């Protein structure tokens, strides 16, 4: 009799713990972009439409954040898929700001980056400006929040070493650095 009660108690405890772990991991889960770096451009075009040239060597597909990351509250922003040689080289989440910078002031992307990648600033997040980068699990992650012509440019960029280096090289070649 005692053995049956303790087994029921243990089973209930395990189910409760699993439910708590699942709920917590879902609450802070990163956006699943639906593709891996290196994916063929045709796979992304099937879902989000044709790419447009960003430069002579790289193509871009833009998609609404709600379609790519439906479980995230990232406000007025979009996802940019960047390609080199028809291979997915980087993902970006870009905040659409107006002259009042109201979207950035909500700190939605800032808080998303902080909860998924790490600390950005210890004080006054509303006024923080700059770049923060991480190298985690083979990913190159860069968060940027910088003023440009009275608008805050706010972006989360995700790539890997291989594609990040290719993007830098090809863009440098185009700009004749």
If strands are numbered along the chain, what order do they take across the biggest sheet? Answer: 1-2-3-4-7-6-5
Percentage of helical residues? 25-40%
How far apart the termini lie comes to 79 Å
Radius of gyration: 20 Å
What is the number of helices? 6
Low-confidence stretches: 9-28
Shape verdict: globular
The strand count comes to: 7
Strand percentage lies at 25-35%
| SS content category | alpha+beta
Order of helices and strands: HHEEHEEHHEEEH
Mean pLDDT: 84
State the major sheet: 7 strands, antiparallel
Can you put this structure into words, describing what you see?
The protein is an alpha+beta fold and 177 residues long. Helix content is 37%, strand content 30%. It contains 6 helices and 7 strands. Strands 1-2-3-4-7-6-5 form a 7-stranded antiparallel β-sheet, with helices on both faces. A hairpin with a 2-residue loop joins strand 6 and strand 7. The relative contact order is 0.13.
